[in-house]
Amino acid sequence: MFDKLGSRKYVVPLLVAVVIGCVMSLMFYPMANMDIQGLPFAALSLDEGVDTPQGTVNAGEAIVESMTTAADDEDGTESPITWKQVGSQEELDAALENGEFYGAIIVPESFSADQAAAKQAEAQAALAQAQALAAAQAAAAASQGGLPDASVAAGAGAGAQGAGAASPVADVQAPAIKVVIDNAKSPLVASQMKANIASMFQQLGVEVDVQTIHTGDDGSSEDGAAAANPMAGMLSQQLTISPLIIMSLVGAIVLSRVFKTKAGVSKAERWKSLGVQVAYAVVVSLIASLCVYCMLLWVAGIETPMANFVLFMWFASFCVMLLFIGAFNLSFPVGILVAACVVLGGMMCGVLPYEGLPTFWQDWVYLWAPQRFTAEGLRAVMYLDAGVWNAGSLPLLITGGVGVAAATFAGLVPAKQRGAKAAS
Fold it and tell me: In the Cβ-directed half-sphere of 370, how many Cα atoms lie within 13 Å?
């Protein structure tokens, strides 16, 4: 075939290299240009306030109000976090269970009172230290002035009493704000925000207590390396979703080519060919599911409930294979187009959060990408103890339904008629 190209065949390797470079650039463009903005976080103040000589002080409400009303940066860029105030602990718990927020901050009931007590303790400690220092200086001066030893001992005793008085008040700890991070919403965001939010409040002089929820079964390899790796959540998605989609695509291409319907065959033969492809797809998708489970376990050392994981990934792979089989049975160019859109356009939608995707991916890809729904179902299985039917199952079923519709059309209309309709 290449001999027919003549001297132009030497250009083919260069052209292939350029095409592969463009393809890989498109696939990883969202990750290379990730700019997380507007992550929804909840803010809840349970602070009951404290009465002071200056009046009632409620530091918790002030903190929440300042966070929820803060404007964007002066240069017009959106903040990485968008805070939304909620009214009760029950409302917050329900929102976190529904995946509405990536996390939340909770100001405890006694925050203002504890803060006032801590400030009072600091003042008392400073006063006690000053008294102890003054007593020590007086004792030293008396010793140099030749006062009796009893007077020196009395001064030293007063200094010791002052130092001893400082120790109880110094034990009073500053109040802490509780920070909740939802790992099931996005492991990538959870690993980043745990450190960032804590650092943000500590710079303001506020102590924080960070808690991660929906961690699922953290059992991993015996040495605990995977559990300690903050990128384990992202790695679990990379080692499952991308290989699953690739294996589903390759399986669909092979089945549609091996059991391709020949031109001029009867409708019964076309249906038989499609039936054989679907039957093999059931087996191939199961093998793909088992393969990604083994990769997750043996490569990343991450353990997860095998039954629900394998069954859901089997379901996801089968639905995606139906989409590809339907497209390739319509025509090979249509199949290539669908495969390019799914693999190149949607691959990062299974890893990155919506708020971190470029605008084009948010508006035109995220809505339909099978990787997104596979990731949602995968997180539900791994972190929420969900079964096969979960948040990602219905969209994947619709994806498979589109493939069935395309395959049905291919079975009803012969290839020549489809080509004639396309030309007209």
Answer: 33
| Residue 252 contacts residue 324 (beta carbons within 8 Å) | yes
pTM for this structure? 0.81
The torsion angles phi and psi of 352, rounded to 5 degrees, stand at -85, 150
In whole angstroms, give the CA distance from residue 80 to residue 91. 23
Helix pair angle (306-330, 267-294), 10° resolution: 140
Give me 354's structure tokens: 């919506």
Residue 145, burial from CB neighbour count under 10 angstroms (0-12, 13-18, 19+)? exposed
Residue given tokens 């504890």 in the structure block: 114
d(CA 333, CA 256): 13
* Residue 34 backbone zone (phi > 0: left; psi -120 to 50: alpha; other: beta): beta
Q: Which amino acid is at 91?
A: E
Over residues 313-358, the pLDDT tens digits come to 999 999 999 999 999 999 999 999 999 999 989 989 998 999 999 9
**Nearest Cα to Cα of residue 401 among 344, 311, 323, 298:** 323
- Note the pLDDT tens digit of each residue in 121-146: 555 556 666 666 666 666 666 666 55
Pick from 46, 188, 174: which is nearest to 103 by CA?
188
Sequence-distant (≥ 6) Cβ neighbours of residue 174 within 8 angstroms: 114, 115, 118, 207
* Rounded CA separation 294/282 (Å): 19
CA quadruple 19, 36, 358, 327: dihedral sign? positive
Q: Write the single-letter amino acid at 176.
A: A
Structure token pair of residue 270: 């076309």
| Cross-strand pairs, 211 | 180
Tokens 């920070």 map to which residue?
179
215 and 383 Cβ atoms separated by less than 8 Å: yes
Beta strands 176-182 and 50-52: pairing type?
Answer: unpaired
| Distinct helix (H) and strand (E) counts, the chain | 17, 7
- Write down the residue that tokens 């959540």 correspond to: 233
**Helix, strand or coil, per DSSP, at residue 69:** coil
Give the alpha-carbon dihedral of 116, 120, 126, 127, to 10 degrees.
Answer: 160
Q: Are 349 and 369 within 8 A, CB to CB? A: yes
